[in-house]
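Subgroup meeting minutes
Present: P.N., E.W., G.H.
Scribe: E.W.

1. P.N. recapped why we're keeping a running log of single-chain structure predictions: easier to compare across weeks, and new members can see raw inputs and outputs side by side.
2. G.H. added today's entry (61 aa).
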Amino acid sequence: MQKNIIYVLLMLPLLSCTPSVQLQAPDKPIEINLNVNIEQHVRVSIEKDVKQAIDKNKEIF
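Output recorded in log:
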């Protein structure tokens, strides 16, 4: 009987420690940098320039 009481008394501190989860929003906004559009624009411009040069000088190519 005394062993059971000792076990219960030893378990009480463990039961009082309960884990908790907290969610908190960040102070600063999230920044996403996308440079994809600039690269695509440059490629399209170069392709148009090359196509125009080929149309003007068909005998070279």
